[in-house]
Amino acid sequence: MNTRTQVLLWTAQRASAAVLALGVVVHLITIIYAVRNGLSAAEILGRTRGNYGWAAFYALFVAAIAIHAPIGLRTILSEMLGWRGAAFDLLVLAAGVALALWGWRAVWGVFV
Amino acid sequence: MSLLRVSVWRGGASGEFRAYEVPRLESQTVLDVVTYIQRSLDSTLSYRFACRVGMCGSCAMTVNGKARWTCRTHVAKVADNDWLEIAPLANLPVIKDLVADMSRFFDKWVQAKGRFYGTRTRADDFARVPPGSPQRQAVDAAIECIGCGVCYSACDVVTWNPAYLGPAALNRAWTLVNDVRDTARVARLAAVAGDAGCHACHTHMNCTERCPKNLVPTASIAGLKRSVAAAALKGEL
Fold it and tell me: What ipTM, to 2 d.p.?
C-alpha cells in the first residue's frame, strides 16, 4: 500500500470518528428511550418502518463503523501480532465490507 | 554514611543485573553513581557520557524502569528506598552494559529528512524570519532537542512497530516543515507520512512526559499529521 493511501486511510478514520461521536450519542439516547419507555418490538418497528430519517441516520452510522473499525483493526493487529502486507490489507477490507453489508441489512430489515 | 543499593545491567542483549553498593552522597546524580561504580568498584563497566550538564544527550539510561538523562537526574528524585536499577535505553540494541546502539535512532532522523535544504549561499544576505511569526514560534517550541533518545526509548509505538520513525525524528522534521527557508517541504512530508511515520502515533504522550528538555513531541507529530493529511488531499504526496 502506498504512502498516500495510508494517509487517506488515517484521514478517513478521523472523519468517520467525527461522525461516530455524534452517531453513538444519538444511538445511545435512542436505546435508553426505547428501554425506559418499555417499547415493544412492534412499537419500535412502527416508528422505523417507512421512516426515511431513521433509515438515513442508521445507514450513515453503519457506513462510519464500516470505515472506522477495519482501519483501527489493521493498526491493532499489525502492532500486536505483526500482521502486515497486501493479503492482510485485503482481509481487513473484507471485514469492513462484511460490517457494512450486515449493518445495512439490519437497517433494511427495520425499514421495510 | 548510608549506602545505595544499585542493580546494573551487565552484558549485551543477554546478560543479568549485578548488584553494587555505592556511598550515598548529597546532591548525587545517577551519572555520579554509575561513574563511582566504574572508577571504584568495577572498571569493566561500560557507559556513555560527555558534557555532564544536560547538553550533549549522551548519558540517557533506563533508571528504575523509566528512561532518563542521568547527568541531571538526582538520586533523591528516583531512588526507591535507597535502591536503583540502571539499564540501557529500551527500544535500541544493547552494545554492552549501559551502552545502547543509537544507529537506528539517528538513521531515522535521516529517513525523516532531518537535514535542512536551502537555496541561499554565503554571498546572499541573511534570511529575515520574524521572531513572532507562527512558523518561527512553532520552530522555537521544538528546536531544543538534544537527541538523547529518551523519547524513543519511552515510546510504546516504537516497541510495537520497529519501523516507526519515533518522536525525536518527527519532532526534528516538524521544525524544518516550519522553517520558511527550507525547500524540501513536500518531500519531507512524504518521508514522515503513513504507517511508519507520524500517522502511527497513538498520542500516548510518553515522549512528552519523559522529554528531559520539556519539549512536546506529541504536538509536533500532531502538526505533521495535519500538514501531511492536507498535502495528501491536495494530491501533493
Answer: 0.81
